[in-house]
Amino acid sequence: MRRWLALLVAATTSLVLVALLVPLALLIRTAAENAATGEATRTAESVAVAVAVEDEQALELTVERASATGYPITVFLPGGRTLGVPAPRSAAVRLAARGRSVTAEAPGGREILVAVQGLPEGTAVVRVFLSDAALTRGVAEAWLGMLLLGLALVGLGILVADRLARAVIRPVTALAQVSHRLAAGDLSARAEPGGPPEVRSVATALNHLADRIDELLAEERETVADISHRLRTPLTALRLEAESLRDPEEAARVEARVDALERAVSAVITDVRRRRRERGSCDAATVVADRVAFWSVLAEDQGRAVTVDLAPAPQPVAVGADDLAACVDALLGNVFAHTAEGTPFTVRLAPTPSGVELTIADAGPGFPPDLVHGALRRGHSGAGSTGLGLDIARRTAESAGGALRLAAAPGGGAQVTLLLPSPAPGDG
């Protein structure tokens, strides 16, 4: 904007200066020509007076002194004799010899001709020659001064325009920075109203919008927390039912499941109450091994063969332990939800140059084509589920700078690959 405003002011100022300085330049040239012509005419008239009263010898001295002023002077006497600087007897000279003083253009300049009548021999003509340089003496310097003045005025206009543009752009740039911070999740960002009234109005509206977003998110967090808290009642009833089981081993296993579910509900309540998600780190090998051990119990009940290939600990990643655990639970839960009992699956964790690669593959029916070849959308699964499991894994990976890839398993079925980067120095 500053550049465009500067160009606009430069163009406008240049047009105004051209409209003003061009006529002024022509006027200066005309004035210089008139001044030179007037001075030459006065010189010719003074010589003409001497022609009328002096003899030829005295007249020749007068012509020499007058020529010393810088103008070539020639006196055409009756009878064809000439005094002073030799010059051709042009048509204008012959016209002046008839008693008419004239000014005529000549090669290389202009000649001033004054007729001197009343001489015994006839009419004499005094000729003063003005060269083109004499006619335009001082014009080039005046034009140069005008050009420098015009450039100075254009530069001054651009400088003033730049100052005005900065006064407008600075608050607009600040507004853009605040909007980027809000888009990045920093809901504490606020704009400082400044600049023109319109920009101040936009800053106030942006602050109001940020306040409203903050309020809506707070309401949403509380609503989700309340909904999650309601799950504690059926969990308590389920725990009581587990405690009433007669088989101690079965009761312990069910109670362990209830404890895990209660921890998950508590984690949901804690997570949604946080103002913003803080990036953490954990040992991926330990977390994945723990969650695979948890799901292996259910896999054994359903007759599923589990192949586990985990890199030795530690395998640090830029994802918190709770978030990674929820991600693994979502992916393994999809295996149990969308494949038949007895379907085997594989869990593989391998290091990469930038982090780790977690691959979960099964021998089930595989993903629908629109999921493998299209964009993964939240709430869309193609299998009749909520479609949130894959989205949880995707958001967990992308929040840390990783990615999620869907593909067909080598032996048929579905394969999910989660790329998780290593934590940056200083991340905890």
TrEMBL record:
Keywords: ATP-binding, Cell membrane, Hydrolase, Kinase, Magnesium, Manganese, Membrane, Nucleotide-binding, Phosphoprotein, Protein phosphatase, Stress response, Transferase, Transmembrane, Transmembrane helix, Two-component regulatory system, Virulence
Highest taxon, organism lineage: Bacteria
Cofactor entry: Mn(2+); Mg(2+)
Domain Histidine kinase span(s) in chain numbering: 226-424
Sequence ranges assigned to domain HAMP in this UniProt record: 166-218
Protein's cellular compartments: Cell membrane
GO MF annotation terms: ATP binding; phosphoprotein phosphatase activity; phosphorelay sensor kinase activity
Enzyme class: transferase
EC number of this enzyme: 2.7.13.3
Ranges that cross the membrane: 142-161
GO cellular component, one term: plasma membrane
Reaction(s) catalysed (UniProt annotation): ATP + protein L-histidine = ADP + protein N-phospho-L-histidine
SUPFAM superfamilies: ATPase domain of HSP90 chaperone/DNA topoisomerase II/histidine kinase, HAMP domain-like, Homodimeric domain of signal transducing histidine kinase
Topological relation to the membrane, as annotated: Multi-pass membrane protein
CDD domains assigned: HAMP, HisKA
Main localization category: membrane
InterPro entries membership: 2C_sensor_his_kinase (IPR050980), HAMP_dom (IPR003660), HATPase_C_sf (IPR036890), HATPase_dom (IPR003594), His_kinase_dom (IPR005467), HisK_dim/P_dom (IPR003661), HisK_dim/P_sf (IPR036097), Sig_transdc_His_kin-like_C (IPR004358)
Protein name: Signal transduction histidine-protein kinase/phosphatase MprB
Organism this protein belongs to: Thermopolyspora flexuosa
